[in-house]
Design goal:
This protein is α/β, with parallel strands linked by helices and about 500 residues long. The chain has helices at about 40-60, 85-95, 100-115, 130-145, 160-165, 175-180, 220-235, 250-265, 295-300, 310-320, 330-355, 365-375, 380-400, 405-425, 430-435, 440-455, 460-470; strands at about 5-10, 15, 25-30, 65-70, 145-150, 155, 195-200, 220, 240-245, 270-275, 275-280, 280-285, 325-330, 475-480, 485. It is elongated. The structure holds adenosine monophosphate and zinc ion. Zinc ion (ZN) binds next to loops.
Amino acid sequence: MEHKLYIYNTLSRKKEQFIPLHEDKVGMYVCGPTVYSDVHLGNCRTFISFDLIYRYLLYLGYKVRYVRNITDAGHLEGDRDEGDDKFAKKAKLEKLEPMEIVQKYTVGFHDILSIFNTLPPSIEPTATGHILEQIEMVKTILENGYAYEKDGTVYFNVEKYNKDLPYGILTNRKLEDLLEGTRELGGQDEKKGRLDFALWIKAKPETLMQWPSPWGWGFPGWHIECSAMSTKYLGTTFDIHGGGMDLQATHHTNEIAQSQACNHTTPVKYWMHTNMLTVNGVRMSKSAGNGFLPKELFTGSHPLLERGYSPMTVRFFMAQSHYRSTLDFSNEALQASEKGFERLMDGYARLQKLTPSATSTVETAGLRTKCEEAMNDDFNTPIAIAHLFDALKSINLIHDGKETINAVDLNELKLVFKTFIEDILGLKSETEASAGNEAYKKAIDLLLHMRLEAKRNKDWATSDKIRNELTALGFEIKDTKDGFEWKI
Ligand code: AMP
Ligand code: ZN
């Protein structure tokens, strides 16, 4: 491939040229949601960021196998094997079967991501659907000597592993430093080392979801599912692994250790992490009480919101920041994005109506290259968007008759706008989205053409009637030198 895509790799802490392991095929794994509750806007930021990355890889011509899992078992409240099972707790609370909880929130997750116009992954495996693979992996890790069993629970032996390979490689931390941050083991503890984590957890009689294993009835630890499912669908070494930054220190660090201990290979070539969505500088999360839901955002029904914002405004707001920067939520920022998005889409609509001239007096031919350069620099969507805004200035000048564009340049400009706005940024006109289809737009155009005709015939009564009634319905109609423009 001709392009030079650079990706910031968490593992090497620098931008590296992206060279896939298998020519034009790319394997990408992203940690999915834990479906015991609704996803909040912070979670959505991570999934939308990887959607932008996925879309750009497709644009470059790669055949991407994009795997995003659903965690539907085995996630305890604490990241270090303490607390209740999240699903069991919620099931008791809502008086439902754990699998009803899983179904309810999986459907909700899909609905929200489709409202945000994200593409579905190629494979969406679930933890409960891969218990056998997880048990097999735990067995191999035990055989390879990197784990031990204690009364039906199997722990990963971090200190043993660290003698052979650096456990803290992803966050560039030494074992001694990591140990400092953990509490001392007490007499009650089954673990040998403070950093050891559970691969398989013994079930209590009342545990709702449990499976038989060589170590008795139990359920998998949270981290092992991603090692097992990524290995199954992408192989023992694959190209890209992603997730939110909060997963680096524990979940992804443990994933690397498990996969290495089982397969004796470095599992991932490029580790990518999205930065956090914050509210007034505080990370958005359920526990902080600032984790509002996309639904609340659309309707404005959360104390932090002055009013509602549309899904495409929110998607645009996210694309306007680089995925590795923190993104702070505020009403002002969203209102600015709303205006920006409207300007972009108005310009895009105006572009469709431009008529070509014999020559071009504006330079638009370099737009595709500039946008590609931005995206090739670690998926820099804000810079790509800035280039599109620059091009809007030319579109407006051509529209006002101050500049001209020839047919070849106009076609390329239309294509670049379509490619970047629709295919890569995944934005769509909301008038179109809510109205449903082209037929609706054509019907309004037809009415406005009838109005033009009435005006030409000096039939002011009909012309005013069409204009006034459309205005009353919420349409904004503008007379232009070529005819008209309208929007809702
Ligand atoms: P969870 O369902 O909690 O496992 O999270 C699903 C994904 O959302 C993970 O990749 C998290 O890293 C990510 N995530 C959680 N909170 C935020 C946040 N405030 N901003 C961005 N991503 C987040
Ligand atoms: Zn994961």
